[in-house]
């Protein structure tokens, strides 16, 4: 028996050491060149520890290994049965604790009679595998039942339905290529200053200070590289006009590999939007208002090409962000000129001032289809990292079972989200039901596969808010041009004054003692901060106590 125990223990040690070293190298914990010395050190330590009683130590350590296997199996069973949340930050420490306790119990019971440890480990591991099989079967059944429910509700579940538009990568690549020049020297260094100035423009619009002076005093426009920015913007606009809409992949590409689809350089495109905005505001500061507005509307037109049916959510949201940057440029031109919009510009604004909120729902279709595709794989793709220790999930069945709970949650989440958007908001009558959205949508975002749709929806509502505020500011400036003074709020309410999309109440308007005025929405928190603080552009946290609008100075 001496040789049997030693052979068994050596095999276990070899397997654990090989697996551990492989994981350590992959995780960059140790260098591949350090593997040899590490093995030598471990071998010496084991030899020193067991040299006098090899058989006894081999038996004891084998019992410890069986206890560890039992502990891991018990912990997996707890995860699969829902007693432990797989996304819990304490998952790894809890798993270690359960394993250690099990090792102690198995050692106490089996260190004198190793056969007992073998039986315990076999029973526990078998129970974990059976549990995993049952969980997998239930998850597969739940996924297919949910997919059928989605079909019955008219929600697309096939790639060709989700992505109805053919790809336009060849026609849109030149636009993206021009935008990417902003990431190359020497322009990239100047872009850092452009981004900083873009933030200062938003701050000025929120406080009603002298935006024209800010622009004329800026060092950016006197930089020799500024002419390159103007040329780049012109080339990008021309290239964007050759792009009918931006769809970077075909339906079959997404169906085959949803996790590896190609995307354009979205960061470069948002950089370009900021460069366009700064050029637009600079033109307004120099008295070229119509050219400024034309450039801002060119940016809006380009951003709309990214908001198409069957677009993934991140690309749609980047398009929304770019459109909002264009709208801020229009607000800036209004605040500098303090004149009503020219008739032809107002006509274009009237055409554009109706963002298609349904595009958010097509992005929901894409995200729902992505989750369904993931959950129908067997086993699920290994790309999805949620902090699970890899050695615990080396068996495909156990890994699939662990993902099964996430998939069940995701299926239920998307059913709830889709049902809410189908039944609660009334977009035809401009009822965004934001208050209900804040309360209801988080209840349907419990899975790691479900993105933050409250945040996404809020960004669309802010976009709608900005469009209405451009028209509201124009109404105030038109009244002042016609009557020589700012209107009273009661006068505006009689002339088609827009509602606040967040509250479905009239947009707030406040005349200021210095001759300026505020136009603002209560924003995502639905609390009137009386325009202080006032969000115009930049990173939007829906939890912040701030209104959304613009402070137009007296001039």
Describe the protein's architecture and organization:
It is a single chain. The chain is elongated, with a radius of gyration of 31 Å. By secondary structure, it is mostly helical. Helix content is 64%, strand content 4%. The protein has 20 helices and six strands.
SSE string:
HHHHHHHHHHHHHHHHHHHHEEEEEE
Rounded to an integer in angstroms, the radius of gyration calculated over CA atoms is: 31 Å
Shape: elongated
Total domain units: 3
pLDDT averaged over residues: 84
Which structural class best describes the helix and strand composition? mainly alpha
- Helix coverage percent of residues? 55-70%
**Biggest sheet: strand arrangement:** 3-4-6-5
- Report low-confidence residues grouped into runs of 5 or more: 379-395
The first-to-last residue Cα distance is: 97 Å
Percent of sequence in beta strands: under 5%
Number of strands: 6
Largest sheet: 4 strands, mixed
**Tally the helices: what do you get?**
20
